[in-house]
Amino acid sequence: MMDQPPRIGLLDAGARDAITDVAGVTVGHATLADGGVQTGVTVIHPHARDPFLHKVPAAAAVINGFGKSVGLVQLDELGQLETPVALTNTFSVPAIAQAQIARCCAANPEVGRAWSTVNPLVLECNDGYLNDIQRMAVTARHYDLACASAGVEVAQGAVGAGRGMSSFQLKGGIGTASRQALLCGVARYTVGALVLANYGVQANLVWGGQPLGRRLAARQPARSEPEKGSIIMVLATDAPLDARQLRRLALRAAAGLARTGSVYGHGSGDIALAFSTAYTLPHLPTGLMPAVTLVHEALLDPLFQAGADSVEQAIVHALWHAQAVTGRDGHRRDALRPLLQAMDK
N or C: which end of the chain has fewer CB within 10 A? Predict the structure, then answer.
């Protein structure tokens, strides 16, 4: 019986095989699971300090832009992350953005007054098949709960923002993983990934390099659906990279995504974000920006490999840990793991 998910790639994982293997990074969830409401919010903190005063370098890569996120324009312009990364459902983006603004203003009363405004960052997927998304059940209170619960142990599957998500016409959700990259045989850095998986046509599913979707379709053909979901892929690293290099790293998330059977369909919003915890950028212009020795361009390949492998592994973990969920109007998504166990008999 298959009792472990496939192990992706040859690189070592961190101690937790999670994005929180990057020192300082924490993750929190708030989950809503009540009948037709199957949704939530997930928050990723880059470090324990005030993210507005101590920004981290960051960049995004839009692989397919069928999405309704907030904050990507300024992120692309300035190359800085100044709030936690928040994930939720499509219609809850405004509420979570307001919660991020309110939390920043409470900590920094001059935001939007003597100081510049804050750039909230909220990324989304549409969980409307399982969740009654029109009820807009996620509120600022849930964002605060997710922030308060943040820690280094990361729950996976149908939790937080992943509660109502579907992948390959099965239950999707939150997954995380990490890989260690060795540069020049000396410098060891960690790349961690967290995904919000809500995409995929079942027949296309590739599971650790094997065409599992074809086997599933042969046993019990799924209803034909176009690939109209989405995936958010967040990469964290302790490698000293600038925003331009982080965008290059973010683009490699697409390699890990493609290996699972995604074709970045017309209706799929596929967005990757990468940030570095190696240094921070001060908000207040009271001194010089930090002088940072960056990784040489010619040495980035191990980080690219770690990024692709950790994203693929995180997607595998999202499917592996998800449990079946019944939600709006009796809609149901079955979990993959019991199907694998049945196939293995």
Answer: C
